């Protein structure tokens, strides 16, 4: 494997002295995916304000328009007229781009629709595991073909029967696929999770008019329900905020205000970890929109400085998307960072464990790689280096944050990958960095 991604965009990140300012983040990627799918499936027209600017949710939106919905954007508002529960099979494959969320969640929606649907993606998506989706949908009666457990995925939709599903892995995408299939199945489908995953789908389904019940750790959805269009505002993306939260931890006098930020309790583990590492959070405002908590927060570094932390078990599952950013600042902590039970990182847009380890070493850090995580000693000084993003958006952004306290400039190769989730990232970073 080459040391850097060939023929890629290179961003040079210079060291900074602090991080200050206010920021309104683009619309939450996870919520935007779900609003695109449900609005495209519902009756009537939905008006979605602050839809994510990332490429991934736009893959979901493009797939829904290929299936019979229509979508137009004017300013900050995306108008989506749904297909009223009847999706047409397009002549061409549905291109999910780099988005595993699109492919996995859309599979649940299509499993009950008449016709044949082929879902494809880019090179990265084509090696990510899809058997986890096929198994529960097949048990409902779906006909799904994969290529050795991967895309392309061919779905021949038809009548489904409700199931009682005990999720073997913590995956909000799997849960969503089963809920969207259950919405169209005969009978009432139930799902239980050993580790509770983010609940954006539950909130979105209720917002579009569906009824869901929770009994302990089991969620129930009756088939045959209709969805109605809505008007909604997507809160700022907390996973995108993670990079700036980590950056704020690097400097004693950081002062950052994040406006209209999504603060869903099933994702609040990030703020808990931020505080445990030495951050201070002041909630300036909080409200609720369609079941989602939204607030404005002020973040600083506590006087005690950047501490260390062990992350494992359920916490690793809750923070799976944010772990690269946390790992990238691990060397700067006082006591180091230990990450375990994060093997899922190996099958994301890249092998994120391997890439984080390689890039930390490229900046002069000591790090020990494990199959399900890594050990990063604290008290280290990093030097500017050449970073290979592997064309993974979270790796590109995570090491841009690490570069802020490095000695000398850092080259981020494959920086264009950030546009998958956060096209404005580098512009915002430069506006907040104090040099």
Tags for this model:
435 residues; 2 domains; four-stranded mixed β-sheet; 24 strands; 28% strand
The shape is: globular
The CATH level-2 architecture of the largest domain is identified as Alpha-beta prism
Percent of residues in beta strands?
25-35%
- Which CATH class of the largest domain? Alpha Beta
Unreliable stretches, pLDDT < 50, 5 or more residues? none
Count of DSSP strands: 24
Count, helices: 13
Share of helix among residues? Answer: 25-40%
How many individual domains? 2
End-to-end separation: 35 Å
Task: Give a written overview of the molecule.
The chain is of the alpha/beta class and 435 residues long. The protein folds into 2 domains: 218 residues, Alpha-beta prism (UDP-n-acetylglucosamine1-carboxyvinyl-transferase, Chain), CATH 3.65.10; 204 residues, Enolpyruvate transferase domain (UDP-n-acetylglucosamine1-carboxyvinyl-transferase, Chain), CATH 3.65.10. Helix content is 29%, strand content 28%. It has 13 helices and 24 strands. The protein has a 5-stranded mixed β-sheet with strand order 16-17-15-2-24. Strands 4-5-3-14 form a 4-stranded mixed β-sheet, covered by helices on one side. Strand 6, helix 3 and strand 7 form a beta-alpha-beta unit. The chain starts with 9 loop residues before the first strand and ends with a strand.
